[in-house]
């Protein structure tokens, strides 16, 4: 496990985690409740061997933009860390909504799960950047433009909608042997300012993943 994957896994396993989205005023208690989801794996994942035919990992370089043509996403990417309470930061709730990369995860194209978060709605500003995330299907393409001028090309492998109380921490933040991507937002029914579920997209770097 790389140092970045290990830090991400330990953070995910040991603290309350953001569920990846928010719909209302960030000062609203209901909105803060919408941000919290946590699970505690019973043990770290074992080391794993890259599968045959896996794409060659890329050098570490932070993402600066994300494109998902199938759902019309073309967004800058901001960097996110951890808040004082141990939950993962989210992008600011602003009219010019954008996705955020969890900086304690690998960068897109490095070995391990690179994690990006986005809002499904942004309060009075309307739809969030990941509003249509649940419409993605296996095979859809995702492009991350990196700080060093290259791009990392991914293909969706799965889209899951899960209850926040059952957030699959190990599946999202745990060790994997190839470069993968996780996109996270809210989903399911909305009660007040809180969404019941999370939508999680899983993707893998394609063999021609660097340009």
Describe what this molecule looks like in 3D.
The protein has about 210 residues and is mainly beta. It has one domain (about 5-40, about 60-210): Beta Barrel (Sortase, Chain: A). It is about 10% helix and about 35% strand. The chain contains three helices and ten strands; from the N terminus they run H-E-H-E-E-E-E-E-E-E-H-E-E. The protein has helices at about 5-15, 30-35, 170-175; strands at about 15-20, 35, 65-70, 75-80, 100, 110-115, 140-145, 150-165, 180-190, 195-210. The strands form two sheets. It has an eight-stranded mixed barrel with strand order 3-4-5-6-9-10-8-7. A two-stranded antiparallel sheet has the order 1-2. Strand 7 (about 140-145) and strand 8 (about 150-165) form a beta hairpin. The model is unreliable at about 1-5, about 10-20 and about 20-50 (pLDDT under 50).
Instruction: Give the CATH H-level superfamily.
Output: Sortase
Query: Helical region count?
Result: 3
Strand order of the largest sheet: 3-4-5-6-9-10-8-7
Terminal residue distance: 25 Å
Taken as a percent bin, the fraction of beta residues is 35-45%
Give a count of the beta strands, DSSP E runs of length 2 or more: 10
Rg (CA only): 16 Å
Approximate helicity band: 10-25%
């Amino acid at each position: 496990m790389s140092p970045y994957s290990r830090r991400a896994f330990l953070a995910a396993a040991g603290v309350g985690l953001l569920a990846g989205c928010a719909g209302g005023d960030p000062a609203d208690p209901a909105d803060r409740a919408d941000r919290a989801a946590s699970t505690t794996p019973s043990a770290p994942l074992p080391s794993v061997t890259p599968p045959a035919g896996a794409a060659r990992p890329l050098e570490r370089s932070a993402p600066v933009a994300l494109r998902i043509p199938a759902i019309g996403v073309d967004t800058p990417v901001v960097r996110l860390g951890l808040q004082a309470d141990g939950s993962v930061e989210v992008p600011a709730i602003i009219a010019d909504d954008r996705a955020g990369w969890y900086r304690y995860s690998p960068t897109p194209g490095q070995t391990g799960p690179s994690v990006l978060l986005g809002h499904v709605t942004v309060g009075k500003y309307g739809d969030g950047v990941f509003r249509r995330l649940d419409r993605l299907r296996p095979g859809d393409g995702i492009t991350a433009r990196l700080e060093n001028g290259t791009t990392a090309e991914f293909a969706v492998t799965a889209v899951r909608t899960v209850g926040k109380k059952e957030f699959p921490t190990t599946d999202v933040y745990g060790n994997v042997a190839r470069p993968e991507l996780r996109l996270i937002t809210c989903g399911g029914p909305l009660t007040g300012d809180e969404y019941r579920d999370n939508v999680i997209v899983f993707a893998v770097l394609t063999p021609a993943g660097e340009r």
